[in-house]
Design goal:
2 copies of one chain form a homodimer. Chain A has 359 residues and is an alpha/beta fold. The first copy, chain A, is 31% helix and 25% strand. Chain A has 2 domains: 22-167, Jelly Rolls (Sandwich), CATH 2.60.120; 175-356, 3-Layer(aba) Sandwich (Rossmann fold), CATH 3.40.50. In chain A, α7 links the parallel β13 and β14. In chain A, α5 packs across α9 (339-356) and α7 packs parallel to α8 (287-309). The radius of gyration of chain A is 22 Å and the shape is globular. Chains A and B meet through β6, α8 and α9 of A and β6, α8 and α9 of B.
Chain lengths: 359, 359
């Protein structure tokens, strides 16, 4: 009896192993959306090779992080997993490793909504493996797998059970033409979302069902003209200039006109949003921080009026009042948005973007 | 001229150093609220010494984490900082180090609302130091400093500039009598809030201005009767039994009556809420996970009806439908709440708690 029980246990264990055996598919064979440089030789980059050594190293390195990119595929699998290699094991004390180096999966519903399935959490090593979901219904669904916000991807494979199908998406959603191209800082890059899908750019992408290209560079949204050139290559539906937390008033005075002009010359009619510095929660208490932000916002407003006065009817000013709510709770460290802050930011920005976005 | 400039720079640097020089005060001399064992010899513990070696090690160790505790003080400082030592350097891949091992500060406003000031982020070592806020108005304010959710505190000091006052609070808020005593799992303990103040128990505490005692034990909300004994020592305004994610139906069947009876015998009329397992987002896709949760919730409902049928008019059943919203976005990993999930959970639970809470 005991022997029979042991054999039965072994059999069940083998069945479980067989069920968990996934067959992995190189992700770059599927559509990767949100690429800031669609014609780059490497898929997982946000800056063109031509800028290597030309822009500051910090900017270049952040340009290799995969913020805002996602793999689109369809599958009738009952289980989905991923294997991926990051370029390094980057950690921050105010952001989860899952947001920094992990991935998360969304599934398209019949009503056109993208719904969170689950996340793939990284370990402490470069190479990671994670089963994302099990016991799916076995029907074909459209999926979107968001890539890490603050790390590079050296390789990525998507696993489904052997014998089940996985392939390129059948539905062209989110729409890739006329994307929103969002330039900015660590916050734009997704600091500090708990998982990639909760960065504001990714939330807005799902809500609009339109690709949002993420050109946020942590600590480096310093109006580099080279980034404006990358943006100008896109036939965008809308540009967002959201870099104030990384700029001093002096820097704005020195660099914003050139940056803006690169976009405007290439695209005379494309809407450009100039976004104020968020009202960071500690400004309620820290009078110096408050003054500094007010001054920068006034400098931005000055240029907005100047661009308008010069006849630009497609440049718009976005106040930050209420952008992350009014209860002071939207950040982890007084600056970087949490999922709560990003949700509020998306609630705030989506209707503004919709109002101006070109089809 | 160059020499004058250097001297001036040196002078300014010295001024800055002097400004940044904080004088530190041992935190236990101030009021520490949310202590599950108010008469324990050590301040920063959630279980009585008598349980050491008696309860499972995992439970005991989690009982040393400071979830739900806060230091209350008042000060007219213009700068506030902290120095603290954690017991170990615990990291998780789905929670920020600031939530696990850090602290955050709230300030009481004239309208009775607690408002987030800023957080104290830990480094990679046991000993940490962080300036939380600068350029305050120099008037006396009431502060609440939340302690780490998933680590122990070996020592904690609060720093203010020399010559400014710091002392025990002048206002007895949050009210300590008739606290809410909330028993549960990793989620109750605060996984995965971005910072301590965003755990549901702490949000609800601020909204009610009533102390909420946190007895969440990650992976260990397994209906240990010893924890019920700790809860029963409180003259609570309300008890919450919110342990289902750590229980199987078998475990509920085996242990819930004893746990409940310990509370009920000690406090015949105190409201007890029985909370369903949250509808974890992946249940929308994972049929097995969905079935398991439905089964556990049915088991809980069975006991609710039994307690009611036995004449208990102060036991209540809390459905989890809509507890963290309906858009599937409230978690980092399909289970643990983010700040967004906790905010929604607090929105959901606060009116329910208010309805039943005894004064």
């Amino acid at each position: 009896m005991k022997r029979l029980f042991m054999l039965l246990s072994l059999f069940l264990a083998l069945c479980a192993t067989a069920m968990a055996q996934l067959h992995y598919h190189e992700a770059t064979q599927f559509k990767v959306i949100g690429r800031p440089v669609p014609d780059a030789s490497r898929v997982y980059t946000r800056l063109p090779d031509s800028l290597k050594g030309k822009v500051r190293d910090a900017l270049w390195n952040l340009g290799q992080n995969t913020a805002g990119m996602a793999v689109r595929f369809c599958s009738n699998a009952r289980q989905i997993g991923v294997r991926w290699k990051n370029h390094s094991v980057f950690n921050m004390n105010h952001m989860t490793a899952t947001g920094v180096r992990g991935l998360d999966l969304y599934c398209l519903q019949d009503d056109g909504q993208w719904v969170f399935v689950n996340s793939a959490r990284p370990g402490g090593r470069l190479a990671n493996k994670s089963k994302i979901i099990d016991n799916l219904d076995g029907r074909e669904h459209e999926y979107m797998l968001y890539l890490p916000l603050y790390e590079d991807i050296d390789s990525l494979e998507i696993g489904v059970e052997e014998g089940t199908g996985i392939g390129n998406p059948r539905m062209a959603l989110p729409v890739e033409s006329k994307p929103v191209v969002w330039y900015g800082t660590s916050i734009t890059q997704g600091g500090c979302a708990s998982r990639p899908g909760m960065a504001a750019t990714n939330i807005v992408e799902r809500r609009l069902n339109r690709v949002v290209v993420n050109l946020g560079f942590s600590g480096n949204g310093k109006l580099d003209p080279e980034v404006a050139e990358v943006m100008a290559k896109h036939d965008a539906g809308l540009y967002i200039m959201d870099m104030l937390p990384n700029c001093t008033s002096d820097l704005i005075n020195e660099k914003i006109e050139r940056f803006y002009t690169i976009l405007r010359k290439a695209h005379p009619d494309t809407p450009i949003l100039l976004v104020e510095n968020p009202i960071f929660p500690p400004t309620r208490f820290d009078s110096e921080m408050r003054k500094e932000i007010e001054e920068k916002n006034a400098t931005l407003a000055k240029f907005y009026k100047k661009f308008r006065a010069a006849g630009d009817k497609n440049v718009f000013f976005v106040s930050s009042a209420g952008m992350i709510g009014t209860d002071n709770e939207g950040t982890v460290d007084g600056i970087h948005f949490t999922d709560l802050g990003f949700e509020r930011c998306a609630d705030y920005m989506t209707p503004i973007i919709k109002r101006y976005l070109k089809e």
